[in-house]
Amino acid sequence: MFTTRKATSEDCALINSMAAKVFPATYKQILSRDQLDFMMNMMYAPESILKQMNEGHAYFICYKGDEPCGYFSIEQQGGHTFHLQKIYVLPHFQGQGVGKFLITKAIEYIKDIHPESCTMELNVNRHNKAVHFYELMGFKKVHEGDFPIGNGYFMNDYIMSIEI
């Protein structure tokens, strides 16, 4: 039903386009419009995505048939820790199992490149309804904080973790 493929530099505009749909929809009730605009530019401008790829973030795009429906990115942070930097499902695909599929694919990717036991972590806004989804997927809250991101803005997040 769903497939994924590793993104290349040619996919930066596609990821940006998907982020422009899902990021504001996800955070419009949580963040101000100014902060949303700042974060979109900081994290999702095509040149920012390319920089992340060049720094070791592995991006994957998910499809339902030929239609892109979500994406995720993973970054190794130390020997046995991987950070799920981004995981988003386009609004009209939510509730169809895409998120669970993406978590499964993220774990498969990590196991392919790091067969030993390790940890996958992620940040999630404390007011994001996805917190419950991650708990259902086996993640545990291990830390919380207010992380400065520039321009006077903070990410008010839980750090959640799962052993894989």
Question: How do you describe this structure in short?
Answer:
With 164 residues, the protein is of the alpha+beta class. The protein is built from five helices and seven strands. It has a seven-stranded mixed sheet, with helices on both faces.
Describe the structure.
This protein has 164 residues and is an alpha+beta fold. Helix content is 37%, strand content 37%. The protein has a seven-stranded mixed beta sheet with strand order 1-2-3-4-5-7-6, with helices on both faces. Strand 3 and strand 4 form a beta hairpin. The longest helix has 16 residues. It is globular and about 40 Å long.
Record the SSE blueprint:
Elements: E1 2-6, H1 12-27, H2 33-44, H3 46-54, E2 58-64, E3 67-76, E4 81-89, H4 98-113, E5 119-125, H5 130-136, E6 140-150, E7 153-163
Parallel strand pairs: 4-5
Antiparallel strand pairs: 1-2, 2-3, 3-4, 5-7, 6-7
Helix pairs in contact: 1-2, 1-3, 2-3
Key traits:
164 residues, alpha+beta, single chain, 7 strands
Helix and strand sequence: EHHHEEEHEHEE
Unreliable stretches covering 5 or more consecutive residues: none
β-strand number: 7
Proportion in helices: 25-40%
